[in-house]
Amino acid sequence: MWWEILCGLVIYRIIRSCFSDDDEFSDFDTSDSDLIFSVADKLEKIYGGKAFIGLRIPDADADAGIRRDIDIVLVTKQEAMVVAVKNLSGFVTVNKEGSWACTGGKKHKAEVLPDPVEEIRRQVAVLESYLEQRGVALPEGFLGCKLILPNPKCMITHSIDVLPEVVSYDKWTQLKSETKGGLSGWFKGAFRGGKNGLQDATYQKLHFTLGTAPMWDRLEVKGGRSVLGEFIEFKGHQEDMQALRNIKRSKVSRIMIEKAMMFGLIGRSRVQLLYIPRDYRTTDASASEWREIAVRSSVDVLFQPSNSKKVRKFKLTSLVSLSLGA
């Protein structure tokens, strides 16, 4: 009798763990972050180079502590581009004040937002200033910008479509992998680097500077979804918190969550964490540097998404990895 009850409890715990992750994210929208990673992945595949995602660059001309959020910076040896990704849906027009108005979208009400083109131009200026402060001098015209509208339900007016910085959904879908080696017409305005490109030393320094710049943390959840935001802390049993005491932004750059291991008849489980110590001298990590700890599967991660003022609680077992910005 007791054996049957214990077996039933174990089976219940296993089934619950399999389905609880979906319930945890049923009310959580990751579409904006997912879209940014999708756009970055497509640009890397077509043009090569490296896409730096979720940068938060200090604005020297603004109040202290003000940072400009940059969705993507795509870097090749010949050119670089600041990319903003707007997940707009509905009909988009320009107001007399220059702001954009979106109606008939997913929010079912008119949405007004500051001119995104002006915003991305400002991002370019802030990034150039930041790079200069860190000793990276780029050739004139090397850094361009594009505003990509990849939502198929986004309809824009002609006055927006003709702007050289704007990439509509139709133009975005026309960008194919076979264009590699020859820039499509709507990208030529963004890529204006010198014929010889950057010297190796400058190119490497640009990569290092962007790789160590302030950026959003990245939480990768099961199902292939990702969330940009800020890691707050772990929550759990005192013994687990003691084991996690060294998992801090200043000491760790990336954490991988392994599968939970079951112990005992009551289904108690522990989760293996692999983490890489932060090294400010390089952005590359060696496999031999990974370290390992084990904690209870009941540990939670507190994380604030970049597009929300609310701190969310995620189960450690529902996560794949956590990357901590510098």
UniProtKB/TrEMBL annotation:
Q: Which InterPro entries would you find in this protein's record?
A: NERD (IPR011528)
What is this protein's record name? NERD domain-containing protein
Q: Where is the NERD domain?
A: 31-150
> What species is this protein from?
Acorus calamus (Sweet flag)
Tell me the keywords, alphabetical order: Signal
The question of whether Signal is a record keyword is answered with: yes
Tell whether Signal is among the UniProt keywords. Answer: yes
Signal sequence annotation: 1-20
